[in-house]
């Protein structure tokens, strides 16, 4: 999956915006001032593929070109209308118009033929405007996983096919951390080596799952878990069997300053890693285990997870909880873990400022980290926005797009004048990427200007 060209007629502050992408590179990094339209562009791309996957009318007019599974795809759409589709096999000049039904086709492994297999979204800010675009897919996926196993298997549907769009949320970071320690394959050993080298996390110590009575009411499920059914019931039953003395009690949950209702809670404590490993052994791989973990969250049974890890001797040893990790460490675990456990080939990653909390050393290596954890990178495309000049240190100009306003106030997307690679931070900041006049503080620069005037 590689984006080639996108023209947006009108979406928020984007009007007649044309953006070209470098099909050769897996990266397109967006830069620009606040309010220049970076987040709106990522939101627009999300909305396009959301409506395509749901087979709905276009939310705005656009013209899109991309490459997917050895086909060059072209889509034209007017606002409120059904898009039109064309496909051209790579190394061929034969253009075929596709019907909507044909465009939605999948292969014998239930992978889309003309659409990305997966669209992964992440936004580090407090707004949930991007998250809401993923709600329909999460709801569709949830309705499937609460079905009994016999009915899920009878449908012959791959659960991931119902959730082509996936949005990363805070709690997913702990799920990813648990999944990292649940596999003994060679690749998993490399992953744990990464955790030791960069996060000083040596091993998993213990886990506490805090469950609470969900808002829904159901009859006929597992009474231990408020009649939960499907994947949720299966996973909780396995956790319950592995837990040390499950405890059930009433607990007051603060909602606001005036409301603290009493809610029935269930605590499942796994005192050692091997207790969780016994649960993991019942699943096929890390992705299946991660999916089972997440089922408790989207079904609103899980209140919180308290994960405790053991630190390396270089970090002082001892145990810390996931909450004790810094914002940057949690953010890195969240993004890298989810890219590893959820992505497939032909995936589109839309990351809005995923490096917000990273230190300079990690910022410089951030794209290397992505390279390390994204499988099938040769068939994936990562579109990310950032304000960090250090992220650009290894990029060429074709991998960067500068969003700015022209003399008429319209947003345009430009290619930088020079390759950021090799420029250094000061040169990057004063280049057309950031357009700073100087990297000095204002008072010092004013003194220098005055000195030049007097000279």
How much of the sequence lies in strands comes to 25-35%
Number of helices: 13
How helical, in percent, are the residues?
25-40%
- Helix/strand class: alpha/beta
Give a short account of the largest sheet: 7 strands, mixed
Summarize the structure in words.
This protein is an alpha/beta fold and 455 residues long. 32% of the residues lie in helices and 25% in strands. The chain contains 13 helices and 18 strands. It has helices at residues 38-53, 100-103, 135-145, 149-155, 172-180, 186-199, 230-242, 273-280, 286-298, 327-342, 360-373, 425-430, 442-454; strands spanning 2-11, 14-20, 27-31, 62-68, 71-77, 84-89, 96-98, 118-123, 165-167, 201-212, 247-252, 262-270, 302-311, 319-321, 347-352, 381-385, 400-405, 411-414. Strands 9-8-15-16-3-17-18 form a 7-stranded mixed beta sheet, with helices on both faces. A hairpin with a 5-residue loop joins strand 17 (400-405) and strand 18. Helix 5 (172-180) runs antiparallel to helix 9 (286-298), helix 5 (172-180) packs across helix 10 and helix 7 packs across helix 9 (286-298). The longest helix has 16 residues, at 38-53.
């Amino acid at each position: 999956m590689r984006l080639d060209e996108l023209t947006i007629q009108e979406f928020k502050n984007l009007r007649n915006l044309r953006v070209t992408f470098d099909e050769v590179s897996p990266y397109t990094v967006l830069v620009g001032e606040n309010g220049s339209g970076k987040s709106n562009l990522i939101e627009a791309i999300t909305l396009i593929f959301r409506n395509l996957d749901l087979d709905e009318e276009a939310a705005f007019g656009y013209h899109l070109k991309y490459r997917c599974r050895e086909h060059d795809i072209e889509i034209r759409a007017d606002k409120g209308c059904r898009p039109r589709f064309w496909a051209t096999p790579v190394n061929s000049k034969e253009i075929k118009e596709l019907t909507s039904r044909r465009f939605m086709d999948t292969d014998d492994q239930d992978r889309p033929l003309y659409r990305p297999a997966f669209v992964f979204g992440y936004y580090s800010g407090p707004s949930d405007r991007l998250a809401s675009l993923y709600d329909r897919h999460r709801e569709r996926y949830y309705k499937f996983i609460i079905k009994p196993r016999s009915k899920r298997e009878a449908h012959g549907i791959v659960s991931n096919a119902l959730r082509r769009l996936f949005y990363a949320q805070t709690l997913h970071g702990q799920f990813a951390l648990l999944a990292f320690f649940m596999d003994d394959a060679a690749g998993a050993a490399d992953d744990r080596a990464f955790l030791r080298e960069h996060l000083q996390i040596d091993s998993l110590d213990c886990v506490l799952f805090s469950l609470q009575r969900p808002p829904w009411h159901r009859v006929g499920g597992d009474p231990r878990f408020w009649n939960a059914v499907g994947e949720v019931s299966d996973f909780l039953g396995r956790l319950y069997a592995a837990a040390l003395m499950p405890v059930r009690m009433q607990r007051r949950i603060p909602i606001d300053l005036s409301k603290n209702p009493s809610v029935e809670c269930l605590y499942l404590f796994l005192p050692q890693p091997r207790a969780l490993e016994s649960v993991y052994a019942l699943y096929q791989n890390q992705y299946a285990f991660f999916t089972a973990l997440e089922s408790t969250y989207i079904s609103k049974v899980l209140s919180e997870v308290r994960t405790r890890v053991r630190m390396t001797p270089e970090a002082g040893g001892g145990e810390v909880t996931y909450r004790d990790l810094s914002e940057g460490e949690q953010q890195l675990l969240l993004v890298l873990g989810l890219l590893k456990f959820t992505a497939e080939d032909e995936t589109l990653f839309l990351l809005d400022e995923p490096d917000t909390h990273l230190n300079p050393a990690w910022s410089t290596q951030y794209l290397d980290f992505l390279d390390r954890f994204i499988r099938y990178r040769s068939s994936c495309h990562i579109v990310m926005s950032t304000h960090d000049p250090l992220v650009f240190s290894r990029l060429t100009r074709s991998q960067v797009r500068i969003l700015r306003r022209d003399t008429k106030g319209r947003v345009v997307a430009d290619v930088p004048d020079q390759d950021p690679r090799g420029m250094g931070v000061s040169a990057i900041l004063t280049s057309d990427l950031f357009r700073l006049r100087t990297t000095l503080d204002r008072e010092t620069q004013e003194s220098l200007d005055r000195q030049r005037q007097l000279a």
